[in-house]
Amino acid sequence: MSRILAFKSARQRRNEQIKLGVIVFLSGVIVSRLLWPVYYTHQVPSGAQPDVAVSVYYPDCDAARAAGAAPILLGQPGYRPALDRDADGIACEPYFGRR
User: Fold this and answer.
1) Is the dihedral angle over the CA atoms 58, 60, 65, 66 positive or is it negative?
2) Per-residue pLDDT tens for 58-69?
3) Structure pTM?
C-alpha cells in the first residue's frame, strides 16, 4: 500500500505542470510590465548623445524638410516626440496616404 501512495497519479502530475506553467507565464507578464518603461521610452541613451552640444529646433516637419533634415531619427539633433506622430523613433517621416 505504501508503494501506491509514493507515486503521484497522472492527473496530479498534469495539474502540477499546469500550475507551474501558469506561474511561469504570470511571472513573465509581471516582469515584462515592469521592464516596459525601460525599453519603450523615447529617451536617448547617454552614450548616444554627441560630445558637442548641438541645439537644433524645428517648429514643424515642414521646417525640418526645408532644412533637409527630415526624416529625423531618435537621438539626432532636432528630434523631439512632438514631431514623431506614431512614436516609432522616426520624426517627420514621409506619409504617402492610406492604402
Assistant:
1) negative
2) 898 899 889 888
3) 0.43
